[in-house]
Amino acid sequence: MANVIVQHNELKELVVKKLTKAGLSKEHASVVADVLVHADLRGVSSHGVLRTEHYVKRITEGGLNPNPKFSVIETGPCSAIFDGDDGMGHVITKEAMDYAIELADKKGIGMLTVVNSSHCGALSYFVEQAAQKNKIGIVMTHTDKIVVPFGGAEPFFGTNPIAFGFPAKKHRPIILDMATSNVAFGKILHAREEGKEIPADWGVDENGVPTTNPHKVAALLPFAGPKGYGLGMVVDIFSGILAGAAFGTHITKMYGEYNKMRKLGHFVCAIDPSVFTDVNSFLENIDRMIEEIHSVKPAKGFQQVMVPGEPEQLREEVRLKEGVPITETVYQYLVKE
Q1: How do residues 37-49 score in pLDDT, each as one tens digit?
Q2: Residue 119 annotated to the active site
Q3: For a tag site, which of 1, 25, 161, 334 has the least CB within 10 Å?
Q4: pTM, to two decimals
Q5: How do the residues of the chain divide into helix, strand and coil, expressed in percent and rounded to 5?
Q6: CA nearest 105: which of 72, 137, 135, 71?
């Protein structure tokens, strides 16, 4: 299937138009569009503008609150609970990270659980938000069941991603953003959209058997077997049980049940390095680490060893200039009046 190349500013405008037409305020629609285009710029199309149609459907069917009233309860010197009032998860998580950064400015660490939220998109956006303020960012979120536990033939946990952002002095921040499944489910959707086969270690069919057909995927596999499974559980405890939200099989589905609020939880943290070490030496040592990793002899087939998030950052630089490729069907949906 052919891709359409769209400039990032135009892409953002198209998403804002769709979301405001569905009833979202321009301010909130702009944040959501920013997070979605951020993902597409980085080449993480699974979390990009292809999700717009889903959000519109959920807003129009009553499973998202287009006019939420956010509230925060501080529970300790550097901890708080952020209530998103069932709004757009992208806006909620951005505001929660802003709050965590403020707490970190005052107390050195800001740590929040987020309740009554919804799908928040690529976590890289929010940890980068912290890194831009010279803070270490940590974000976790859970999702509805789609990943089989190690040794299981049916799903229990979600893709349950976790992300870290580390600021540097002269280099771009180190950004690690990963699902605890082998891939995010959005990559399955993207493969369906493009009519491509998938690797056999991405997902299983309804019988728990690995498949290369994206249309037959009933559940995903955890990355690295028991390690990904264990980390997925940890993420659900932090963003689900610790937040007083649902966990595992009890989470409202993303696809289907469009009239139900999802009540997702997130865990958001910002750390000021200066509470542990000299901030300048920290930033300089992150730079040094990046440069020393770059100088590691590359294996056959590789030009250079990179740090986490770097391939996406390089792709973003290209796409900011040359435009963002999106599938024809997604483009047609966005431009349709």
Answers
A1: 999 999 999 899 9
A2: yes
A3: 1
A4: 0.94
A5: 45, 20, 40
A6: 135
Taking CA atoms, 69 is separated from 81, 88, 90, 120, in Å, by: 14, 11, 15, 17
Same domain, yes or no: 286 and 250: no
Same domain (yes/no): 226, 322: yes
Host domain of residue 92: 3-277+317-335
287 lies in the same domain as 266: no
β-bridge pairing 79-83 and 109-117:
parallel
- Indicate which residue of 8, 28, 38, 119 is catalytic: 119
Contact indicator for 166, 134 with CB cutoff of 8 Å: no
C-alpha 234/C-alpha 276 separation (Å) is 25
pLDDT digits (tens, 9 = 90+) for 230-251: 999 999 999 999 999 999 999 9
105 and 89, same domain (yes or no): yes
> In this structure, are 222 and 292 located in the same domain?
no
Same domain, yes or no: 205 and 304: no
219, 303: one domain = no
221 and 287, same domain (yes or no): no
Asked whether 163 and 137 are in contact (CB, 8 A), the reply is yes
**How many domains does one find in the chain?**
2
E strands of the chain, at which residues? 3-6, 71-76, 79-83, 109-117, 136-141, 162-166, 174-178, 203-204, 210-211, 219-220, 264-271, 324-327
Give 177: exposed, middle or buried? Use CB within 10 Å, 0-12, 13-18, 19+. buried
